[in-house]
């Protein structure tokens, strides 16, 4: 019986040693898994932050589309000069002034910024004055380099003529 208990004790001790060794191996592998989970959690937090930043940027870009389009629309490129001239003429029509572009010249050097346009306008004093206000508020960056207004009598009516030299500063070459 003693022999059986020694064998049983040996088997139980062996099983206990195997069980402890398995527990230690399990603990070590769980430590590695916990470390990996921490790294994965860190990557997830980093990616989540990146996603939030991208959403903020996307919202910002969506919210500022109108402003960016308005800013881009205030610049005139070589291919948009006709549109600019049409805007000048249309503004005259809306203000009751007949506008004609007498001449246009591109900037001759680095010291000059943008092309110049010689505009001739004809209408009532009030209409020409409103057209000048229109030019000052046009969505392009311009300078009125010269403004001259004269009145003439034609068929007993007083007609005003205005001549304007406009330099387009918001020009992209």
Task: Characterize the structure shown.
This protein is an alpha+beta fold and 173 residues long. It has two domains: 2-63; 76-172, Ribosomal protein S6/Translation elongation factor EF1B (Alpha-Beta Plaits), CATH 3.30.70.60. The protein is 57% helix and 26% strand. The protein contains four helices and six strands; from the N terminus they run H-H-E-H-E-E-H-E-E-E. The strands form two sheets. Strands 2-3-5-4 form a four-stranded antiparallel beta sheet, with helices on one face. The model has no long low-confidence stretch (mean pLDDT 84).
CATH architecture classification of the largest domain? 2-Layer Sandwich
CATH class of the largest domain: Alpha Beta
Q: Pairing-aware structural class of the strands and helices?
A: alpha+beta
Q: List unreliable stretches of 5+ residues.
A: none
From the spread of the alpha carbons, the general shape counts as rod-shaped
Number of helices in the DSSP assignment: 4
Enumerate the strands of the largest sheet in spatial order, edge to edge or round the barrel: 2-3-5-4
Radius of gyration, whole Å:
41 Å
Helix-strand topology string: HHEHEEHEEE
Strand percentage: 25-35%
The CATH superfamily title of the largest domain: Ribosomal protein S6/Translation elongation factor EF1B
How many beta-strand elements? 6
CATH topology tier name of the largest domain:
Alpha-Beta Plaits
Distance between the termini: 108 Å
Number of domains: 2
The largest pleated sheet is described as: 4 strands, antiparallel
Mean pLDDT: 84
Report the helical percentage.
55-70%
